[in-house]
């Protein structure tokens, strides 16, 4: 510890982020410039995604995603799970009424589109924001997939009333 009880400005911890973390991120970024096996590449992308801001992490993953899927199709679910994790992290940090929050929720739905979960919450969210046209499209989509679901029929009925 510095004699005055705090670190001087020129020491890494005094600048906000510890220098070793920055160096590890830089090394990982440089590694991605090299040809690597898909499993190792995915591991590096995962590590970087955990340490980068959400937008930067999403950009990195989306840049790497096509090559990773092609080289390791068995990792598709893990790639989607990582993207969902980043999107959910971004969603949690946004104010309730922001347009970016709604767009992020839609991105989550797009990533999950092949999964059984449906965008019921997003449809009601659009309805609450008075975005009736978008809500109606979502309810119509949901109702077409599951016509016996009363919640979807109710939403569609409210939209068309």
- The proportion of residues forming helix, as a percent range, comes to 55-70%
Helix/strand structural class: mainly alpha
Q: Name the average pLDDT.
A: 81
By DSSP (H or I, 4+ residues per run), the number of helices equals 8
What does the overall shape look like? Answer: elongated
- Please outline the major beta sheet: none
Distance between the termini: 69 Å
Strand content: under 5%
- SSE string, helices as H and strands as E: HHHHHHHH
Low-confidence stretches: 1-15
Number of DSSP-assigned strands: 0
Q: How many domains, in number, for the residues?
A: 2
**Rg from C-alpha positions?**
21 Å
Describe this structure in words.
This protein is mainly α and 161 residues long. The protein folds into two domains: 18-108; 118-161, no CATH class. 68% of the residues lie in helices and 0% in strands. The chain has eight helices and no strands. It has helices at 19-31, 38-51, 54-71, 76-92, 99-112, 120-128, 132-145, 150-160. Helix 2 runs antiparallel to helix 3 and helix 3 (54-71) packs antiparallel against helix 4 (76-92). The termini are far apart.
Short characterization:
This protein has 161 residues and is mainly alpha-helical. Helices cover 68% and strands 0% of the residues. The chain starts with 18 loop residues before the first helix and ends with a helix.
Notable traits:
disordered N terminus, mainly alpha, 0% strand, 161 residues, elongated
What is the topological layout?
Elements: H1 19-31, H2 38-51, H3 54-71, H4 76-92, H5 99-112, H6 120-128, H7 132-145, H8 150-160
Helix pairs in contact: 1-2, 2-3, 3-4, 4-5, 6-7, 6-8, 7-8
